Amino acid sequence: xxxxxxxxxxxxxxxxxxxxxxxxxxxxxxxxxxxxxxxxxxxxxxxxxxxxxxxxxxxxxxxxxxxxxxxxxxxxxxxxxxxxxxxxxxxxxxxxxxxxxxxxxxxxxxxxxxxxxxxxxxxxxxxxxxxxxxxxxxxxxxxxxxxxxxxxxxxxxxxxxxxxxxxxxxxxxxxxxxxxxxxxxxxxxxxxxxxxxxxxxxxxxxxxxxxxxxxxxxxxxxxxxxxxxxxxxxxxxxxxxxxxxxxxxxxxxxxxxxxxxxxxxxxxxxxxxxxxxxxxxxxxxxxxxxxxxxxxxxxxxxxxxxxxxxxxxxxxxxxxxxxxxxxxxxxxxxxxxxxxxxxxxxxxxxxxxxxxxxxxxxxxxxxxxxxxxxxxxxxxxxxxxxxxxxxxxxxxxxxxxxxxxxxxxxxxxxxxxxxxxxxxxxxxxxxxxxxxxxxxxxxxxxxxxxxxxxxxxxxxxxxxxxxxxxxxxxxxxxxxxxxxx
Length: 485
Description:
- It is built from 18 helices and 16 strands.
- The protein is an alpha/beta fold.
- The protein folds into three domains: 4-139, Rossmann fold, CATH 3.40.50.280; 157-337, Alpha-Beta Horseshoe (pyruvate-formate lyase- activating enzyme); 376-470, no CATH class.
- Strands 2-1-3-4-5-6 form a six-stranded parallel sheet, sandwiched between helices. Strands 7-10-11-12-13-14 form a six-stranded parallel sheet. A two-stranded antiparallel sheet has the order 8-9.
- Helix 1 links the parallel strand 1 and strand 2 (34-40).
- Helix 11 (288-301) packs parallel to helix 12 (319-332), helix 14 runs antiparallel to helix 17 (454-468) and helix 15 (412-427) crosses helix 16.
- The chain is globular, with a radius of gyration of 24 Å.
- The protein starts with a strand and ends in a 10-residue tail after the last helix.
């Protein structure tokens, strides 16, 4: 039994909740009376509720995000209907802005806005004493990262063996992109280097081998020490992931990045848009040519797996400018491109463009853009299906021979959109087709839409299917790391 349950509804099992562990680590004397319960979006609300209530809690804390908002609302509504005496405390970005009028906030007992580690501990102490805070909504000030207790001991053996270990070296972002909540926190605060490296050593010694840093960008102040930490220890099966701003990548980091062996380092490069006018409109200070040059350098001259992001639906972006940016980015050679759809994050400054650019968002989470003044609904639907066809055929690496034929001799964006239209026409859905169905439809596309010789199309698809059945170690022999001069 636990007086305090910290519940987390994650997108999938591999996403262990860092926020929940931070809350527990900073509960102080109350930590022994608390427990974390983690769920995924695939879990049924009644099953989640049953597990929570089996602890007989007096306080339930729940983090609310754009991707779990609907599930969180359902869970809280059921919990308060069944056990109204249990105090529900909300936190997370979804309830930290535009708090008034949210049904989940009205159902809950208390809501913490902002970084809630210390505020949650104070609130739990009050609630367990039977006291009520002065206000149901608490604005938590940013804590000193040096004084926070780090949560990494709370990753257990199963987490370390089967899930990503999420780590943060800093909070905040020096950039002011209006579509991101980090625009509201432009001061970068860092975890003291010695404290962080000690935590990493503890994780590594316990068997952690998959690390994902949640920082917005690689910083010269602390990243070299982190990269050296992993380079000195890495072994087959180890993997580390960082985000970066490609036109602001500190040059001293390049030799360290280049020293990683294949399959051990992933870099997520946030491009978002390559239209200078759109970028300026949303406050994204970016040199497009420098950003593309960095992506090309990392993809061609290092062993890092380079994942690049574009966002469709920014104010003023047209289908033509999106396609042009995609093709330029594709030519730079990242290993995968995530064509994301703009989502309305509560509190993000991009809301100022809603009227001038007729930004229409879905009223349901995750609040994806439906249309703008420059990309209508029908075109936006095609863009969404293009993003899916890109994932199915290019990003997952399962159809490399067929993929090359799909985009041969034309604009990559136009080819993937044409493929998306064909898949939609033939399958009426591209969410999770079987490999067999996707392969047969891909072959029909190459024959009918692209006009390829049926024997050539069949051979390409058959080669990809054969490769998919080949053990991964045989397909990707180990190579030595390359170093930049």
